[in-house]
Amino acid sequence: MPQDYSDTGHATGAVRASLQIEGAAIAVIACVAFACTGASWWLFAALILGPDLAMIGYLRSPRIGAIAYNLAHTYTAPAGLAAVAIAFDWGAAWPVVCVWVVHIAADRMLGYGLKYARGFKATHLSTGKEV
User: What stretches of the chain adopt beta strand conformation (E)?
Assistant: First the structure.
């Protein structure tokens, strides 16, 4: 029977699969929400890799890189932008929120997780030893 738990700091087995399925579901819903904004799919294409610019922090150090990456790859930041959009009736922010959520969710679906400072490949979804 495969191990379905981890004491190594990363998700394994059914927990990992559940997080990946959840990511796929959220990505689909956020794509539908983006379509409902009426924004151009060219805008979607232009923004989809935007959160990965946070990887520039790795040029400074693994610790700074992990902090920057994680700030850009949690749902907290797009949720904050959504709150600003609601508070100020700022409709132009919604396509950005949707694309940001799609990016994060697609990362989870593909098995890319939040980073630990010990190295770029060490995430909550991997040991850091996978290629």
Answer: 115-116, 119-123
